[in-house]
Amino acid sequence: MSAPMSFDPRVWTAHAHAKVNLHLGVAEPREDGFHELATVFQSLSIHDVVTLEEVGGPTGASSSASRVLSLEVDGPYALGVPADSSNLAWRAVDLVASRLREKFGPRDLPQVALYLTKGIPAAGGMAGGSADCAAALRLADRCFSQYYTMDTLGEDELMGLAAQLGSDVPFTLMGGTALGTGRGEQLTPMISRGSYAWAFISSHEGLSTPAVFAKLDELRAAGRGVGPSMDTTAVGQALMSGKAQRLAGALANDLQAAAVSLRPDLRKTLKAGKAAGALCGIVSGSGPTCAFLCEDEGIAADVVSQVTVEIPKTRGFVATGPAAGAVLV
Ligand code: C5P
Prior knowledge:
This protein is α+β, with helices and mostly antiparallel strands. Helix content is about 35%, strand content about 30%. The chain folds into 2 domains: about 180 residues, Ribosomal Protein S5, domain 2; about 130 residues, GHMP kinase, C-terminal domain (Alpha-Beta Plaits, 2-Layer Sandwich), CATH 3.30.70.890.
């Protein structure tokens, strides 16, 4: 009788960092429906924790069945996050498996369980779903590469897969500070001096990104839209100076009017943050999370406590930027 195949289950963990758009210029929609962007991304200390665990021995070399057996979501911002194959992190694992097989040949690969601990608001304009997806790309590449005698896809190829999965995924993979053009997936690293302190105020209900872009098109068609603000020089210079005051004067978001039009309550939140001592407040990405740049982390903590008391159904946290992208820990 032959001994059963033994396997040694292994677990890897990554931090998936959120982003804020310091400048978000949105041009007219393109033929593919996406809008051409000129954006400056900066990653933030706030992050989700993504864990990938092997849950079975390697199988299925010639099968296209999903390598993901289960996905569990917990943490302070778990509500509303899909725990099935519609989650971008799930899709990232399968994309890595199929690309490895395409590149290095079919192999038996283990099935895996994914665990997401959400510290980033869901559907909040901070790229939480994209960040989890970026972390899952790195984790799957690390796990499955063992079955290819450590051949990994490498950074360039992971960036290509990231762009297939979503416009914000390449930046959340890379982290730091970068200019994003195209639909946001073409990245050029930028210099950023010092560290910036932010207060973020999240909302009880998320906003749909496509709905916010569509609202901007509608406002513009009615002659009420802003921008397009495609010149990122001011924010670039402010980042070189390292001065929060200067960066506060350069923050811009073409999607803000659309987000506020869909969620008029955000006006109050923006006002309350500034009254509480922030240098400047903007909607983060497509919203509804509001981002308040502050002189230091102490003031940011005051802004969080004052605004969350004043505006019902809000929560908040302090974060600093720049930070890393998706990193194995
Ligand atoms: O790329 P991603 O799947 O994250 O984009 C979600 C949606 O946001 C798109 O389907 C599109 O409606 C909108 N979008 C856009 N222009 C961009 C990025 C996103 O219109 N540059």
